């Protein structure tokens, strides 16, 4: 059994357990409903499987949502700081370019005179 199959089996068992405990289905009814949903069939309880799968996903995502909400102010501040830093570097580069152009005539190379060849 591959790890994917193991995860699917674990999810199916979890759904069966939730159907039994939350909706008072028998073990057979819960298993049948999960199997129907896995086969894309409809049955008397497949809507409960969908509802429980959605509730399970919501419960799993709740801590991640909380973490994202808690991090948002820090991420906004970080973004603002990075934007300010980029602008400062752009201004510095413009100042350097302007200063280097003013220090020599336009025709003069910034690297100095070309080397002389000896024959």
How would the blueprint of this fold be written?
Blueprint: H1 3-23, H2 27-38, H3 46-102
Helix pairs in contact: 1-2, 1-3, 2-3
Structural write-up:
This protein has about 120 residues and is mainly α. Helix content is about 75%, strand content about 0%. The protein is built from three helices and no strands. The protein has helices spanning about 5-25, 25-40, 45-100. The longest helix is centred in the middle third of the chain and has 57 residues, at about 45-100. The radius of gyration is 33 Å and the shape is elongated.
Ends distance: 80 Å
Residues in helices, as a percent range:
over 70%
Shape: elongated
- The SS-based structural class is mainly alpha
Describe the largest sheet: none
List keywords for this structure.
about 120 residues, 3 helices, mainly alpha
Question: Can you describe this structure in just a few lines?
Answer:
The protein is mainly α and 119 residues long. Helices cover 76% and strands 0% of the residues.
């Amino acid at each position: 059994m591959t790890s994917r199959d193991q995860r699917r089996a674990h999810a199916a068992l979890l759904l069966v357990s939730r159907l039994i405990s939350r909706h008072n289905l028998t073990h057979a009814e819960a298993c049948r409903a999960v199997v129907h949903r896995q086969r894309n069939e409809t049955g008397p309880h497949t809507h409960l499987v969908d509802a429980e799968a959605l509730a399970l996903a919501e419960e799993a995502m709740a801590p991640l949502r909380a973490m994202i909400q808690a991090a948002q102010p820090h991420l906004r501040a970080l973004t603002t700081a990075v934007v300010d830093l980029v602008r400062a570097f752009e201004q510095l580069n413009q100042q350097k370019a302007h200063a280097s152009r003013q220090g020599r005539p336009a025709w003069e190379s910034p690297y100095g005179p070309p080397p002389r060849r000896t024959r």
